[in-house]
Amino acid sequence: MRKSAGAALFAVSVLCALSASGCGYSLAGRGSFLPASIQTIGIPNFVNRTAIFNLETTLTQKVRSEFIGRGKYTIVPEASGVDALLSGEVTAATITPASFNQNSQLASRYAITMTARVELRDAKANVVLWENSSLVFRQEYDAAGAQAGQTSVDPAAFFGQDTQALDRISSEFARTIVSSILEAF
Asked: Is the CB of residue 161 less than 8 Å from the CB of residue 132?
């Protein structure tokens, strides 16, 4: 009786191991659901429909770097001679006060909200592989100098805070886009 129980346990263990080996899981960020024919992706500069200077350049560079960091595809800035073309457009960007100092009613925190659309198209088959026409990203930052009862904003402390927030929003944008494309979310 004892041998048959041991053999049954062994058989169940082998079946579990065999079924788990084909489950399809892989390390996050390492897979790709793009067709095997896609080897070179063109990522020309995105279009900027906002008043924020150079936003398209920052976003494009971050997306290119994120793809290059994944190491599987050749990334070029051209739109021709590629297997797939990633195009993007920043449709809106707003900076609004998010909170106020109670004493002086000056803005103490701001929020940057950016809206964009992105499309990845198979350049040879002219088929959309992935798209999102309503991406929204938001990042907040402190208005340094409008804190703790101060009655005025220090301009030297204020400038640069928005640039850092735009850099953070650009990094988040790039990670989200590349992960969505490669991992089919």
From this structure: no
CB-CB contact of 75 with 41 (8 Å): yes
Residue 59: which domain range? Answer: 28-183
Domain count of the fold of the chain:
1
Q: DSSP 3-state assignment of 176?
A: helix
Q: Which of 120, 165, 111, 115 is nearest to 135 (CA)?
A: 115
* CA angle centred on 144, ends 139 and 146, rounded to 5°: 110
Q: What is the CATH number of the domain that holds 146?
A: 3.30.160.150
Each residue of 97-106: pLDDT tens digit?
Answer: 888 888 777 8
Tens digits of per-residue pLDDT, 106-122? 888 888 899 999 999 99
Q: Please tell me the number of Cα atoms within 13 Å of 148 on its side-chain side.
A: 3
Q: Does residue 11 belong to any structural domain of this protein?
A: no
Helices and strands in the chain: count of H runs, count of E runs: 4, 6
CA 118 to chain centre: 11
Q: How far apart are CA 90 and CA 174, in angstroms?
A: 13
Amino acid at 185: F
